Each structure stands twice: as C-alpha cells, then as structure tokens.
Amino acid sequence: MSLSKSVVAIVDDDQRVLDSLEDLLESAAYGVRAFSSAHALLSSNALPEIDCLITDIGMPGIDGFELKRLMGERRPDLPVILITGRHEIPAPQEAKHNRFFRKPFDGQALLAAIGDALTGGATPP
C-alpha cells in the first residue's frame, strides 16, 4: 500500500452500507478499513493509520455520537463524518461543516466532504 493513500475507516452495523461505502471509497483511491461496530474499531490496531472516520449514528452498544467523543479523546485530530438512516439531530457544528449525512446520501457529496476533511477545508475553527 502506498504511504500517500489516505485511509478512511467506516463503522456501520449494516453490512450493505459497509460494502457500498467500501466500493465508493476504493473507486476514489482511498484505503478502506471497514468495521461492523465501534467496539471492533476500538479493539483493532487500525487507529494510528486512519485519516478520516465515517460512522453510523444508530448502532447497538457504542453509538456514533459516543464513538465520535471517544475518538476526540484518542485522536483529537481525526475528522469524523456522521451518517444515519434515522432522524437523529446532528450537533450544529457537524451540520454546519458538512460532516453529517442522512441515508441515502449522494456518494459524490460524501467524497467531497471526505476530501475537505482531509485537507482541512471543512475543519471547524
């Protein structure tokens, strides 16, 4: 794997979403690490290599909001994008900086948000 390839982690308990996002990200030349739960990500050795995290909000156990909080403690520099198929209300900052997507979402818009997050284009002040 090339060191210049950005690695995006996906955490979602829906295997179809994981597969679909993995295909989308790989088509855009990202490295991908897919996890079916927040616990699976947290117990893996992948945290140091991740450049961006996409997480579903509504998951059993540790939900996306809690995972985002935990990542803020462990990797404060890590951009986190929240996705949901439910009606959770995002924090105003996530919505403002285009880091919140409701399913089904536009893949190109998500790729743009990832690009912005990785380059600091949508980083909160």
Automatic annotation (TrEMBL):
Highest taxon listed in the record's lineage: Bacteria
Alphabetically ordered keywords of this record: Phosphoprotein, Plasmid
Protein name according to UniProt: Response regulator
InterPro entries listed in its UniProt record: Bact_response_regulator, CheY-like_superfamily, Sig_transdc_resp-reg_receiver
Natural source organism: Sinorhizobium chiapasense
Domain Response regulatory: residue ranges: 7-118
Gene3D superfamilies with a match to the protein in the record: 3.40.50.2300
Residues with PTM 4-aspartylphosphate: 56
